[in-house]
Amino acid sequence: AAAELVAAGADLIVTGTAVEKSQDVASFISELTSSIRR
């Protein structure tokens, strides 16, 4: 989903709730940044 948002022109992705609910924040952020870089 993050890659789709970036491809659509998003300059910012709000992740607050997802980070708060994540059991493994580092893994969540890693997955997010990896999908954006593709």
Task: Report what the structure shows.
The radius of gyration is 10 Å and the shape is flat. It is mainly alpha-helical. It has helices spanning 2-7, 16-21, 25-37. It has one domain. The protein is built from three helices and no strands. InterPro entries: GGGP/HepGP_synthase_sf, RibuloseP-bd_barrel. This is Geranylgeranylglyceryl/heptaprenylglyceryl phosphate synthase.
What's the shape? flat
How far the N terminus sits from the C terminus, by CA atoms, comes to 12 Å
| H-E string | HHH
Mean pLDDT: 86
Rg from Cα: 10 Å
**Residue share in helices?**
55-70%
Question: Would you report the number of β strands?
Answer: 0
Judged by helices, strands and strand pairing, the structural class is: mainly alpha
- Would you identify the regions where 5 or more consecutive residues have pLDDT less than 50? none
Given the structure, what is the number of helices?
A: 3
The main sheet comes to: none
What key attributes describe this structure?
RibuloseP-bd_barrel, 38 residues, Geranylgeranylglyceryl/heptaprenylglyceryl phosphate synthase, GGGP/HepGP_synthase_sf, flat, mainly alpha
Task: Furnish the topology, listing elements before pairings.
Layout: H1 2-7, H2 16-21, H3 25-37
